[in-house]
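Most newcomers find our protein records easier to grasp once they have seen one. To make this concrete, we reproduce a full record directly below:

…
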Amino acid sequence: MKNEIKLIFYIVFAVLVSGCTSIGSYIISNPDVYLSEAEFIKAEPEEIGFTKHEFCSHNTKECIPYLTAPPYLSEDFPAGSSVYYSLHAIGNGVENTISHTMTPDTFNRFKGTALLLHGYGGNKEVMMATAIYFRALGMNVVIPDLFGHGESNEKFAFGTREHQALSQLLSKLTNKRENKELTVVVGHSMGTLAASNLLSSEHVDAAILLAPMMRFDLAAKEYLPNKAPMLNSIFSDHVDDIVTQTMEDASVTLEDTDLLINLNESSKPTLLVNSNIDSVSPPNYFSSVKNKQITKFIFENRAHSSLMVFNKEDSSKIEKWLFEI
């Protein structure tokens, strides 16, 4: 609470000195500083089987820090053991605890690679819970930091520019010409934009979009009241101007942040997972998408952040779709 009070005093002072639009733009373009997501697994990545790497694009020279981990092997687990996660999420007027236990007899049912992309304010470590599920399923996992998040030194770009470097990374890791296994990109919230851009890559076979984000100007108006009500009370009358300036500074357009364009043009299987109560990712926003490659699931009464993981019932639906692609 003391830190929140200090932040409010700082913002009020900055607004008086610099102007509301400028300081609001700074906050939006630095989500790690003011709007970061909590880490759901407190263990260090190396403690639970992840390895840290960095990849730099030979074309753009942009660099992406990322984690990798192999699938779990049943022979590495003693009798009676399992892997487990539990995520507690609050938002949209509800509290969710999403838990899932997977035993060695259920491992290795789907071979391939899962590229996991976090949302706005997140980082690669946030997606380690999601990775536990896909590792148990039998997949190699790759988890990068989006630009402007985590250990990334690149300029924040709304998830619109990472796909070129990520496609090159997947080419290096999966060697698609010799490997028949599928590569599935899984994005949450803003990460779904980077995921949808990757649908044009020859190194991606399908996508799962969890709580996919509306166009950024629309999402921002719903996100701030839920994530940062104190900030919203200061900036609510200036959101349009703040978004416009932030995008101009990043050389990004509103059209660049509109998932609907990619979804309507996609030629690859894509699964949309929404919650009926999620104001940042309302199902009706995607009602205009009629592409036959798109499948839509609605999970009832789920907070926005809770959709990055699955319980047993969720996983049975995800897997039914996954095994049919």
Summary: Residues 269 and 293 are 5 Å apart (CA to CA). The chain has two domains: 1-34+216-253, 43-214+258-324.
